[in-house]
Write a structure and sequence with these properties.
CATH architecture of the largest domain: 3-Layer(aba) Sandwich
Number of domains: 2
Number of strands: 15
Distance between the termini: 29 Å
Strand order of the largest sheet: 2-8-7-6-5-3-4
Mean pLDDT: 82
Low-confidence stretches: 342-355, 357-374, 394-437
Structural class: alpha/beta
Shape: globular
Number of helices: 17
CATH superfamily of the largest domain: Type I PLP-dependent aspartate aminotransferase-like (Major domain)
Oligomer: single chain
Length: 437
């Protein structure tokens, strides 16, 4: 298990009095920011906030820090430095990519998307149908949300130019076999675009080893500033038309950034690598091995919760029951009387001492309709967590049908709250007592 005292010590938010007593199961909406990122951002605004790359000290230092961020992140991800670029967000990066493909593709050629994707890696591609590009949908299993590679094979032919899919689902959390899927697409002559937004917070991937042509994720979900990070492998990047200023068309990392970058946030992104390297040194492993430590820690925390939910009649667990095959995004469909009480989740999305991302039920109602209603429930609750939770804060995961005992010991239920403290579970460090059914 990770040294959580060390991990939490890298995030100032854990010492912030205004956040004390809250448990956040909404990590998909953004993570806490680590201290090295905050330090670098503050320094840039204090000492480097000038036009970078000019021949005077402050400008040279600012440009050097931007270059450092790109170089070190590329090294962590296993790609060349100029294959990594920054943009305002992953959604906007994908829209720029879609325009580049629109210019390169001919009417009648095809792109494969999934109905497991987040809108960011689906909507921009689907809109290309207006330009005569065929959009083929790789559909999930309607009962489990699983994407079967065998179903993709049936969609691939000589017309397909691009296959887009998520590294893991932002609802059911299942980790998709990127290498296997990439090999299938490449064998059919198609490029591959992977949305890593829901995966990267749980461990930066070795993109070079995965083999995909595009990999996208969001820095504000990986303990950094609000930037979208995109890996574009050289062969594809050189084949696509320039989307930036004409004088940037020959520079791979500038070619798909139409506007000027946010200098300070780009520079501060190196702080994410500072954190990973500090954690690696503390744990006695190489930086690229930290992802495995994170995943192992999360599996240990999540498996008892999955076991519990998988055996309840009041909820139906969506996605794999084996924690090793998913990220710690846990989707449950309410059953019976809990399903009838879904309005309380829809109206607030939070209870005393807890903030929960109800991705299907409230934050993304269209997602529930288009993708997950086919899993048999319009009432889907999706708590998300990450590795800084501990087993003691998790308690036993759930203590009542349809309810969750969250890390701070607050009782959450689709139809009930405020139960008296359970004598079997001591109060947490914040003074909040756990409850049981």
């Amino acid at each position: 298990m990770l040294d959580l005292e060390f991990v939490r010590g890298q995030f100032p938010a854990f010492a912030e009095p205004s956040l004390e007593g809250w448990a956040f199961f909404e990590n998909a909406g953004g993570s806490y920011t680590c201290q090295p990122v905050i330090d670098r951002l503050t320094r840039f605004y204090h000492q480097r906030k000038v036009q970078p790359y000019a021949p005077y000290p402050a400008s040279e230092a600012g440009g050097a820090e931007m270059d450092e961020a790109r170089s070190r992140l590329a090294g962590l991800l296993g790609v060349e430095t100029d294959e990594l670029s920054f943009g305002p967000s992953t959604t906007q990066n994908t829209y720029v990519l879609a325009q580049a493909f629109r210019q390169r593709m001919m009417p009648g050629e095809a792109i494969v998307v999934t109905n497991q994707d987040h809108e960011a890696n689906s909507g921009p591609w689907r809109r290309l149908a207006d330009d005569g590009i065929e959009i083929r949908e790789w559909k999930i299993d309607p009962e489990t949300g699983h994407l079967d590679p065998a179903a993709l094979e049936k969609l691939l032919d000589e017309k397909v130019r691009l296959v887009c899919f998520p590294h893991c689902s932002n609802v059911v959390g299942e980790i998709n076999p990127v290498r296997e899927i990439t090999a299938l697409a490449h064998a059919a002559g198609a490029w591959v675009c992977v949305d890593g937004v829901s995966y990267a917070p749980h461990g930066f991937p070795d993109v070079g080893e995965l083999g995909c042509d595009i990999y996208l994720f969001s820095a504000y979900k990986t303990y950094g500033p609000h930037q979208g990070i995109m890996v574009m492998r050289r062969a594809l990047g050189e084949a696509l038309p320039n989307q930036a200023h004409f004088f940037n068309g020959d520079t791979l990392y500038k070619k798909f950034t139409p506007a000027g970058p946010d200098h300070a946030q780009v520079a501060a992104s190196a702080g994410m690598v500072d954190y990973i390297e500090a954690l690696a040194a503390h744990e006695g492993v190489a930086p690229r091995e930290v992802a495995g430590l994170m995943h192992a820690h999360e599996v240990t925390l999540m498996q008892p919760l999955l076991d519990f939910l998988g055996n309840r009649n009041s909820v139906r667990l969506l996605g794999p029951r084996d924690a090793a095959h998913r990220a710690p995004t846990v989707a449950v469909a309410l059953q019976g009387r809990q399903r009838r009480r879904r309005g309380r989740w829809r109206s607030t999305g939070s209870w005393q001492g807890a903030a929960i991302s109800t991705r299907c039920a409230r934050c993304r109602p269209w997602a529930s309709i288009r993708r997950w209603a086919c899993c048999g429930s319009p009432s889907c609750i999706t708590p998300r967590s990450t590795r800084w939770k501990s087993s003691s804060r998790r308690s036993t995961g759930c203590c009542d049908a349809g309810g969750l005992t969250l890390p701070r010991g607050r009782y959450l239920s689709a139809g009930q709250q405020g139960k008296p403290p359970c004598q079997s579970h001591p109060p947490s460090s914040s003074g909040s007592a756990a409850t049981c059914g």
